[in-house]
Write a structure and sequence with these properties.
This protein is mostly helical. The protein is built from 7 helices and no strands. Helix 2 crosses helix 4. The chain starts with a helix and ends with a helix.
Length: 155
């Protein structure tokens, strides 16, 4: 029997509670709540697939990063550290992110493919993103991908 990502999160939450790991248990609790909220959204309750659970975890991790940046800019270093630590807990459940070199290679190939199809210059952004997004889904953040695409299209 394969364990789903959601049940792994619940098992890890129980372990964290038993170990009195406050940071990990509160982070996993918030994430499981977000998953449950997603399951009951819409007309009827449904069980999320592992891919959908990954999307929820990715969204939660992004919230933590943005909050950490906001706290850091607001001079609240303690809160920023807490958000960063929560983000690191969530990162353990996400696939490893692509390195800059790997991302550059994938985007460069997509730019060549788009140019071969007749897309040129900055207007080719949409065409290139359509090629790149399925290849890097979950492995690189959208903003990071868009920045590399813009840089390579600008030449």
């Amino acid at each position: 029997m394969t364990t789903t990502l959601k049940s792994k999160l619940q098992d890890d939450l129980n372990t964290a509670i038993k170990a009195r790991d406050e940071l990990r248990s509160s982070t996993l609790r918030l994430t499981l709540t977000a998953i449950t909220k997603e399951e009951v959204a819409g007309k009827e309750k449904r069980e999320l697939s592992d891919d959908e659970v990954l999307k929820v975890i990715t969204k939660e991790a992004k919230k933590r990063r943005e909050a950490a940046d906001a706290f850091a800019q607001g001079g609240r270093a303690e809160s920023a550290e807490r958000e960063k630590a929560e983000g690191e807990v969530l990162a353990e459940y996400l696939p490893k992110q692509l390195s800059d070199e790997e991302l550059d290679g994938i985007v460069a190939a997509a730019v060549e493919e788009a140019k071969a199809a007749g897309a040129e210059g900055p207007r080719a952004m949409g065409a290139v993103m359509k090629i790149v997004n399925p290849k890097v889904a979950g492995l690189a953040e959208g903003g990071r991908v868009a920045a590399v695409v813009k840089r390579l299209l600008a030449g």
